[in-house]
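Review form for a predicted model. The reviewer records the input and the model, then writes brief findings.
Reviewer: anonymous (R2)
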Amino acid sequence: MHEFEEAIRNLVSIVNAFRQTGTNINAAPAMPAFSYLLTPKQRERIAKICAKEGWAPTKCGGVEINASTVDHILDSRLAQGVSEEFVADILVAAYNQFSEIHVNTKYKNEENKEQAFFLNGIKKLKFGEVTWNAVAVVALENLNDAGERQLASITAYHADEAKVRKIKGLPKAKK
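Model under review:
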């Protein structure tokens, strides 16, 4: 197992263990956090999106994945009946060197809603009898402590082919 995958799986497990005790993750002692480091191609794609959309650029080279974000993802996905392991699978697949980056058009015209999707169309996930793609939603936050724009993980989920086509701006598949 790659170190990044191991870190994600451990963080998901730790956060879920806290959830099961009823502990508010924000009140918990120091929790692990780490960053997914973008590939040069992904950094270039984000720069192009920022330029095209008129967003202030970012030189940030990674996306922080922290306990609070994982808690939110677990809350949403476990309610859909998926397992802790599947949640980790989503994160591992979404934050991947092969993931494409697309604008979140749902919030495209709203101020302070500069978001992008990390979409992995290569590694498919299986849940039940259905095949899914992993998607992570990342926001371009205004400023970090150093005064630079940063990338913040918002959520992650599994998406069917119709959702993937919508994210990519492709027409609906013909039946």
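Findings: The first strand starts at residue 33 and ends at 37.
Further findings: The mean pLDDT is 85.
Recommendation: see findings above.
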